[in-house]
Amino acid sequence: MPAYNARATIRSAVASALGQTHRNIELLLVDDGSTDNTAGIALEFAARDPRLRVIKTPGGLGPAGARNAGIDAATAPRWIAFLDSDDVWSERKLELQLMEAHRTGAGLLFTSYWRISEVGTLAGRPVRVPKSLNAWQSYGNTAIATSTVLLDMNCTGRPTLDGTIGHEDYELWTRLLSQGTPSRGIDQPLMAYRVRKSSVSSQKIPMSKNVWTVLRDRRRLGRFASAWCFASYSSRAIFKHRIHAPRMSTQLTVDPSVLRALALDDHPC
């Protein structure tokens, strides 16, 4: 879990990870030079639960560098899952993904997810995902949200995110799938993704440039193939943002564990 000045949301994120029904976990929270009380709040949790380790850096690593620092510090792991400091897991997220991994042999697993506003309001319908993605399908697809991913390093090896490109998560998924890693999507919303105006992913023009760079420079697709995949990716992103735009919805059946975790955002910091 990379974190930077995340005191407003860190409680709900950490609580959702430590509250998993699959209890045998190690949560590595990398505080990347926060100037607020992010580290202090995390240390409160760590004092009560030894499964949480807080790693403090001088800052400047960015999301990719912070995630790499957490992966490097993990104790003899086979499984790596990602959770951003403003997102929330359903309490059965890891349990269900591990069951699916053992059943199918998939090395990259991802799930459907809810979208929530900055203040924790549910946003429209859940974002659905396909049963699987191969490399070619992944190039033009926005289905894989970072905080839904579980990797089996027996299949993938120890992953390293490329900090030289702004869309390092998309680069990693397409890289792993292009190497033949089998994938599996669970079409059940097991994560809540916070839509933030200030988030990196909200910077649409730089993000578009990064997608093009991944397709052309990292995956080395030709111009026609890159253009086709880029158009597919962009149209899916636009559709997702419009159809699932933040608004109140009374038609969702939401895991109560997600709502309990989100309620911690109101805890005084």
Features:
alpha/beta; three-stranded parallel β-sheet; 9 strands; 40% helix
Describe this structure in words.
By secondary structure, the chain is of the alpha/beta class. Strands 4, 5, 6, 7, 8 and 9 form a six-stranded mixed beta sheet that branches. A three-stranded parallel beta sheet has the order 1-2-3. It contains ten helices and nine strands. 40% of the residues lie in helices and 18% in strands. Strand 6 (108-116) and strand 7 form a beta hairpin.
TL;DR?
With 269 residues, this protein is α/β, with parallel strands linked by helices. 40% of the residues lie in helices and 18% in strands.
What value does the average pLDDT take?
A: 90
Return the string of H and E elements. EHEHEHEEHEEHEHHEHHH
Please state the structural category. Answer: alpha/beta
Radius of gyration: 18 Å
Largest sheet: 6 strands, mixed
Inertia-based shape = globular
Q: How many helical elements?
A: 10
Unreliable sequence segments = 246-251
Layout of helices and strands, plus pairs?
Blueprint: E1 2-3, H1 10-18, E2 27-32, H2 38-48, E3 52-57, H3 62-73, E4 79-81, E5 88-89, H4 93-104, E6 108-116, E7 122-127, H5 135-139, E8 150-152, H6 153-156, H7 168-178, E9 183-194, H8 204-218, H9 223-243, H10 256-263
Parallel strand pairs: 1-2, 2-3, 6-9
Antiparallel strand pairs: 4-8, 5-9, 6-7, 6-8
Helix pairs in contact: 1-2, 1-10, 8-9
